[in-house]
Design brief:
The structure is a homodimer. By secondary structure, the first copy, chain A, is α/β, with parallel strands linked by helices. In chain A, 32% of the residues lie in helices and 19% in strands. Chain A contains ten helices and twelve strands. Chain A has helices spanning 17-25, 42-49, 58-63, 65-74, 89-100, 113-116, 144-154, 190-203, 233-236, 257-263, and strands at residues 2-6, 28-32, 54-56, 77-81, 105-108, 131-133, 159-163, 165-166, 186-187, 214-219, 227-232, 246-250. In chain A, strands 3-2-4-1-5 form a five-stranded parallel β-sheet, sandwiched between helices. Chain A has a five-stranded mixed β-sheet with strand order 6-7-12-10-11. In chain A, strand 6 (131-133), helix 7 and strand 7 form a beta-alpha-beta unit. The interface between A and B is large, with 54 and 54 residues.
Amino acid sequence: MFFLIGLGLGDCKDITVKGLEIIRKCDKVYLESYTSILTCGVQALEEFYGKELTVADRDLVEQGADEILGEAKESDVALLVVGDPFGATTHTDLILRAKEKHIEVKCIHNASILSAVGCCGLQLYSFGETVSIPFWSDTWKPDSFFEKICNNYRNNLHTLCLLDIKVKEPTLESMTKKKKVYMDPRFMSVKEAAIQLLEILKSSDSTVIDEKCLCIGLARVGSETQQIVACSLSKMASVDLGEPLHSLIVVGPKLHPLEDEYLQQFKIV
Amino acid sequence: MFFLIGLGLGDCKDITVKGLEIIRKCDKVYLESYTSILTCGVQALEEFYGKELTVADRDLVEQGADEILGEAKESDVALLVVGDPFGATTHTDLILRAKEKHIEVKCIHNASILSAVGCCGLQLYSFGETVSIPFWSDTWKPDSFFEKICNNYRNNLHTLCLLDIKVKEPTLESMTKKKKVYMDPRFMSVKEAAIQLLEILKSSDSTVIDEKCLCIGLARVGSETQQIVACSLSKMASVDLGEPLHSLIVVGPKLHPLEDEYLQQFKIV
């Protein structure tokens, strides 16, 4: 059987009781390591679960899916995923591949940033489409997320911006070589995201949002060191929220009084 | 200290390890019982937690907040909430009231229908604004959610429709009386929701969605008896998914190939 188990957002104790019982019974346990991370390290997880974990990078999950699922045909295999198992397309794809091979699949849900973001006091029902902000390179500066943020804003909705993660990405030079060289992991900060948004604003003639629009920066949601700040977009470009993961919210134009009252505790000028 | 603890969506073992440890240490534990329900009963929860639970209805949480928070000033009090603690406005309000009284608050996140709904294979990033569909009465038939569904659809986004719950609602006749008489609990089914949507369509001149649009009905997400069906809106009006809770998705006009492939397993004609 193949289990996809959500780990939640904070540390080892954010797993559900059901999820933990399954891990302890499984023959092999993988930890998906490239769509998100927990604030605690792999070793802390292994000690708490009492199980050895095999760290699964993108190559293993995407190209090595047959290997993982082959094992799941004969024995009980779990893939652990930060947040909820359905947060990333790649996991949905894995379930489909398992069903094709007639392998039974069971998913254990957990907290996802998509709902945990409610901790800033904004109503989850007042969010529009979620967007992803990718790292820019010198030659590749996609900005399609900007139009989505504007569209949400026009509809009086907040936008949750998920910020890019680059884990075990091969260097450009080694892409075509046999022996890949990997870059250091990178996690986009709210500061970097705000700077990219301001750069788009400068070259855009959009009048929907401007540098004064209210934003919320969130870091390490659900962990002991969680941090939340609310300020203008231009101010956010100089905010340092420390260690990853970060998320950014572009707040809609009209706040519900309760949202406004709740946000006061996070405001900086 | 005041703890708000998410219970997730299925049964007693969907609580996180962290949440369970806190419950077992608390002096008093309330179970919020009117914004959502678990498929297992209160007794199963009490046995698993090894704690007596005080069922908290709307009156107690909203009018009795001072009482609950007064206890939290002197001792450790937990309020257990199905899903994630930030799923309902009333809990955010409670945190604000606690902070006013200088009571420390800690929230333990868990799975929410807003992200667990990914189990149907639709990408969570392709959902627009979430709507609530309320029970209609003979004299009160609000339909503002319909325009939001159409707006999402126009933007090529799916809509998650949360379906109404009526728990411990006083009868109209007893509203003004001292001794309130309560109605039986009601939970809107996907069938009832589809019928209401079809009724709105009949009297609307909207051409955005019609009775042939693809919908997904979900029941008891995250539990052992979870059920998912995908069919047209008109077909959904005759689908019986059994026990609550139900949710309905109005699918956007264009599916990603992976979404389409995943949905095939749930299709009925």
